[in-house]
Design a protein that fits this description.
Elements: E1 4-5, H1 8-29, E2 36-42, H2 46-62, E3 65-71, H3 77-89, E4 95-98, H4 108-114, H5 126-133, H6 142-154, E5 162-166, H7 173-182, E6 186-190, H8 197-203, E7 206-209, E8 227-230, E9 234-237, E10 244-247, H9 252-255, E11 261-262, H10 269-288
Parallel strand pairs: 1-11, 2-3, 2-4, 5-6, 5-7, 7-8, 8-11
Antiparallel strand pairs: 9-10
Helix pairs in contact: 1-10, 2-10, 6-7, 6-10
The chain binds guanine.
Residues 97-100, 122, 142-143, 273 line the site of guanine.
Length: 292
């Protein structure tokens, strides 16, 4: 079987082009109104610094304003909560993104809870999670939204398909399952305590791998023709070259002969997360103005 490699970079570029056009139109129609994203980074985690830089670049590419708030690792929870209160109250800020993980002295959930749900462009606030899970208008988490778009690139009708979500995090696994359910899939969730994961994989028409372990899902487990979406971004050292490289949660080369379609790492889900963040920021701006 010839597998389709789903090009997340191309789909994300198309989305950002469409968003840029909508932003232009918004500016013309509404006296220069420009969506604004505030990005908050606490500490100096190198991976987070890269993600934040990419988010800022994406803002520029679609015509948003973006502001960065880089705080030292020793920032207290109260200091961070004070910044969030200030951003909640700022009419120039339509979206607030606090890059995770936060230093261990700060309670992440308390920080997420403090963000105005209408500005919660990550879709992590309990109000948005609740609304999304019962199908009400909300800002939905970006990575699972991006995965849904990539799945629909290769399969429009998901009704009755067996979907397996491997990983039960609040930011990917759980919302992913509820989006697949909304698309009428029969959804199974697997996690670290699941017995016989290969057997679960063998039944699945769609597999979402989001467990954060390099090349954990083996090619031989995958049903012939399945759609495989790899959310993992793991930095490992290549044993042959000694160089550092990014790999997903799926053993890509092994999986390729079995799958119908698969996302690569890098260049699959990653760019989609950022494109969906831009989409959420535009949606948040419309919601705050009563247009959505
Ligand atoms: N850290 C890793 N992924 C994400 C994300 O999607 N949003 C935020 N805020 N932090 C992250």
């Amino acid at each position: 079987m010839t597998a389709q490699i789903i090009d997340g970079r191309a789909v994300a570029a198309r989305m950002k082009q469409e968003l840029a056009a909508q932003v232009c139109e918004m500016k013309q129609r509404h006296d220069g109104l420009t969506p604004g994203l505030a990005v908050v980074l606490v500490g100096e985690d190198p991976a987070s610094q890269v993600y934040v830089r990419n988010k800022k670049l994406a803002c520029e590419s679609v015509g948003f304003r973006s502001t960065s708030h880089t705080l030292p690792a020793a920032t207290t929870q109260d200091e961070l909560l004070a910044l969030i209160a200030q951003l909640n109250a700022d009419p120039m800020v339509n979206g607030i993104l606090v890059q995770l993980p936060l230093p261990s002295a700060i309670n992440e959930q308390m920080v997420i809870n403090a963000i105005d749900p209408l500005k919660d462009v990550d879709g992590f606030h309990p109000v948005n999670i609740g609304c999304q899970s019962i199908g009400l208008a909300s800002l939905a988490p970006c990575t699972p939204s991006g995965c849904m778009i990539l799945i629909e690139e290769v399969e429009k009708d998901l009704s009755g398909k067996k979907a397996l979500v491997v990983g039960r995090s609040n930011i990917v696994g759980k919302p992913m399952a509820s989006m697949l359910l909304k698309a009428n899939c029969t959804v199974t969730m697997a996690h670290s305590r699941t017995r016989n994961l290969p057997e679960e994989c063998a039944q699945a028409d769609i597999i979402i791998a989001a467990l954060g372990r390099p090349a954990f899902l083996r090619g031989a487990w995958i049903k012939e023709g399945a759609i495989v979406i790899d959310v993992g971004i793991n930095r490992v050292t290549n044993e042959e070259t000694g160089k550092s490289q990014l790999v997903g949660d799926v053993a890509f080369d092994e999986a390729l002969p079995h799958v119908g379609a698969i996302t690569p790492v890098p260049g699959g889900v990653g760019p989609m997360t950022i494109a969906c963040l831009m989409q959420n920021t535009l949606k948040a701006t419309k919601m705050q103005n009563g247009w959505a």
